[in-house]
Design brief:
Alpha-Beta Plaits; four-stranded parallel sheet; three-stranded parallel sheet; 15 strands
């Protein structure tokens, strides 16, 4: 096992196909150190200049001034503020002051760094130089819109007629026709992000389900999650009772034990740590009861309701699915309810693998703040906490193996299935990641009032479940192995709840 905080430096890059992981990490570390210093505002203002001093190498942009501008915007997002709502002339020190003085986080958790967005070319179908001007011309005959013609020995596409259906690309024998995509647009399952008149990406928050797929897809790191780390640090510094709630997915992020992780979080300044699997056991019991009741009424299927991204999808885009979605609350909801009941004066902080939980928390008075795994990793690095060298700190309440397996694709359905009586048939169906196609499938199930594949549909916005969340820092396979070992060491639901 690695016994150094340097593990965060490695795994934050492993799970991200872009170098922006390093930039995000360094910005967060510097912001945390600035807050813990004697001059938060001034030290924050200097971050872009400290990272790119005069005469330094310019690794990513055209000039040092553009580099600093992008770093400034990343710092603004790290301070929890919207780039869209921050004037270009506003000093970072002022943004830092506003972050320290605000009472609650901003509504929308995502923001677009226009300085980092390169303004990708519009999504379109393009004929490459591989075109042979063949006699068969399947592209021309296939196009239903009359957008393709052949002249000068090459196919040409009329952009005014083209509908971007892609049929021509599918039938071309030379693969000479290619679809040019905008990564963030292509990744979004609900069409919530698109280029504006200036060529920059813009998020339509009326459509956005906060799945974070656009942030993961952008090769420039231009779509950024707004951090609540300063809000949490502020409450700890004020001496308040701040309690962390960690999901089992967190155990997949570092090669350490659960008890070591709890102790490391306590060393950050938290008063206590609750395992969200405690709430997952409640979710399992309630969803199992609800499933049985629905099947006895003659309903054909039920979907789970644990994934915040899926719930946003239903609320904004699939109202026809509402009758089939479980009414049971999420593990975070039940855990926060327990924490507040036991500690009415506490400030609650959920440690999240994804951006969607920040949206869910805004509608839950029992959850005060949400910070993601990237932010936790930067925080531990800033404070030089070596997780695997920490002592053991036991959880007050032990959760079941089934609850701790929620973060793995199929884990929710398995946990519910275990608690359903044998006389009630359960046929689980797993939707492993929301895509344009899976959204269409869900619409079909809702329209038909039935799913031909099964009757208990688990929906996860992220491929791989919570272990594949956009804010995770470890690669999926090692994360899965670590969580699986943790699950296998745990008692079953029956053993825990005798």
């Amino acid at each position: 096992m690695c016994n150094s905080n340097e593990v965060w430096n490695k795994i934050m890059v492993m799970n991200t196909p872009k170098q922006t992981a390093n930039l995000k990490k360094e910005i967060l570390i510097r912001l945390i150190k600035a807050y813990l210093s004697d001059n938060f505002e001034e030290n924050t203002r200097l971050i872009p200049y400290d990272m790119r001093p005069k005469g330094s190498e310019v690794p990513y942009r055209c000039c040092i001034y553009k580099e600093r501008a992008v770093l400034r915007d990343r710092a603004i997002a790290g301070l929890g503020s919207s780039i869209e709502e921050t004037d270009d002339s506003t000093l970072l020190s002022e943004v830092a002051k506003n972050a320290e003085n605000r009472e609650k986080p901003e509504e929308h958790p995502l923001t677009v760094l226009t300085t980092a967005c390169k303004g990708c070319v519009p999504s379109r179908i393009h004929v490459t130089d591989l075109c042979q001007g063949c006699v068969a011309r399947p592209c021309e005959s296939t196009c239903r819109f009359g957008a393709i013609s052949v002249h000068d020995g090459k196919s040409h596409i009329d952009p005014e007629k083209c509908k971007n259906c892609g049929m021509c690309a599918q039938v071309c024998p030379y693969q000479a026709i290619q679809r040019i995509i905008v990564p963030c647009e292509n990744a979004c399952p609900v069409g919530a992000i698109a280029k504006d008149e200036d060529g920059h990406a813009r998020i339509d928050f009326d459509k956005c389900i906060s799945c974070g797929k656009c942030a993961s897809a952008c090769p420039f790191g231009a779509v950024h999650e707004k951090s609540q780390i300063i809000d949490v640090l502020k409450n700890i510094k004020a001496g308040k009772k701040v309690i962390a709630m960690i999901a089992p997915a967190m155990l997949g992020q570092l090669p350490c034990t659960a008890t070591q992780l709890k102790e490391a979080i306590l060393e950050l300044g938290f008063s206590d740590v609750y395992e969200v699997a405690q709430g997952a056991d409640i979710t399992s019991k309630n969803e199992a009861t609800e499933f049985v009741e629905r099947m006895e009424k003659g309903e054909k299927f039920m979907t789970t309701s644990c994934c915040a991204g899926y719930n946003e999808l239903v609320d904004k885009h699939l109202p026809e699915m509402k009758p089939f979605r479980s009414d049971t609350k999420t593990p975070m909801y039940y855990t926060a309810e327990i924490v507040k009941k036991e500690n009415p004066d506490a400030v609650t902080v959920f440690f999240s693998p994804c951006v969607a939980k920040k949206r869910e928390a805004l509608n839950n008075n029992n959850v005060d703040f949400v910070i993601n795994y990237e932010e936790v990793g930067a925080w531990m690095t800033a404070k030089e906490i070596k997780v695997a060298e920490c002592a053991d700190s036991e959880f007050k309440v032990q959760s079941s193996a089934e609850a701790r397996n929620y973060c793995v694709t199929g884990g929710v359905a398995k946990a519910v299935q275990v608690l359903v009586p044998e006389n009630v048939e359960v046929k689980p169906v797993v939707i492993d990641g929301l895509t344009k196609q899976s959204v269409r499938d869900l619409k079909k199930y809702a329209k038909n009032g039935a799913c031909d594949l099964g009757n208990l549909i688990e929906v996860m916005a992220c491929t791989g479940g919570c272990l594949g969340g956009n804010s995770t820092v470890n690669a999926y396979k090692p994360a899965l192995k670590q969580v699986t070992n943790y699950v296998n060491e745990s008692k079953t639901y029956t053993e825990v709840h005798k």
